[in-house]
Design goal:
Order of helices and strands: EEHEEHHEEHEHEEEEHEHEEEHE
Structural class: alpha+beta
Distance between the termini: 18 Å
Oligomer: single chain
Largest sheet: 9 strands, mixed
Bound molecules: N-(5'-phosphopyridoxyl)-D-alanine
């Protein structure tokens, strides 16, 4: 069965799905995006992801390409047409196609692309069992990373650097030595007292939808959360560390810059959060 993608009003075979060369997403990274997990036939936290997409669009003074109700239908339809029961759906809105000019084009229509693909859930399950390694890198992104734009070159380079070091994620660190977030995930630690710590979601990080759901999961498990800054040093000495994102949910970190966290094995707190996540997250049938 061929993959089908949605591009500007059309469901097209994935191989033939194009935007124009003068799309502003292509030329200026003038575009925003979302990634939702699809698990067991449900789109996870779609409401939260579309709310955040709306916020990103507002912050950049971009219009919704269609009504929110129509948008939801398109997202579900792409998942359905690709028969994705486990995987992800990718949504991208750019300011549209216009002759190259830095200024906002008058009258351009936003471009909308929606793709979906299957991912074998055993891959993430295996990673969660083994745990992942992270490296730390100096923050070199702009100060509006709370807007989920496709301008991800620093993230690409940081994650590539992590890969070269045998790690799976890079944590951006501010000039005070505090951890901000990962290249494509939020960063967390668990203190010796069992308290979950994650950086406040101001302009310095993306307010992860998974992060928000994990607050509810933690409350249900009776775990305390502190939203505060934490240093690389505190993280290395923590009882547990983990990352969160739509594609990884809560994923144990077993080493930071080659320093093992606790005994170097996935922690029990993150594994219980991971286990309870799906019961708490919003689930919409595709
Ligand atoms: N990334 N921080 C950054 C920089 C991210 O790119 C992401 C998600 C997150 C976690 O957000 P959420 O829980 O809403 O997925 C935090 C997605 C998965 C990506 O770019 O593929």
């Amino acid at each position: 069965m061929p993959r089908i993608s949605y591009v500007n009003g059309r469901y097209a075979p994935h191989a033939d799905a194009y935007v124009h060369i003068e799309d502003r997403g292509y030329q200026f990274a003038d575009a925003v995006y979302e990634v939702c997990e699809v698990a067991k036939g449900y789109i996870v936290d779609m409401g939260g992801h579309l709310d955040r997409l709306g916020r990103s669009l507002d912050e950049l003074r971009m219009a919704w390409p269609m009504s929110r109700a129509a948008f939801e239908i398109v997202v579900r339809e792409v998942v359905r047409r690709n028969r994705v029961t486990n995987g992800l759906v990718y949504i991208q809105v750019s300011r549209g196609v216009a002759p190259r000019d830095f200024l906002f084009p008058a009258g351009a229509r936003p471009s909308l692309v929606v793709t979906a693909r299957k991912v074998n859930p055993a891959i993430n399950a295996g990673k969660a069992e083994a745990g992942i390694k992270v490296i730390t890198v100096p923050e070199n992104r702009w100060d509006r990373v709370d807007i989920k734009t496709v301008g991800l070159l620093p993230n690409v380079l940081a994650k590539e650097q992590a890969k070269a070091a045998g790690a799976q994620e890079a944590w951006f660190v501010d000039t005070d030595g505090n951890v901000k977030e990962g290249g494509s995930s939020n960063a967390w630690i668990v203190t010796k007292d069992g308290v979950l710590v994650t950086r406040p979601a101001d302009h310095g990080i993306l307010r992860g939808i998974t992060r928000t759901t994990l607050f509810k999961v933690a409350a249900g498990l009776g775990l305390k959360i502190e939203e505060r800054h934490f240093s690389v040093q505190e993280a290395k000495e923590a009882r547990e560390a983990f990352i969160s994102s739509a594609t990884t949910i809560a994923m144990p970190v077993i080493a930071i810059d080659d320093t093992p966290i606790a005994n170097g094995h996935p922690g029990s707190t993150v594994l219980s959060l991971r286990q309870a996540f799906f019961d708490v997250a919003e689930k919409r049938p595709a």
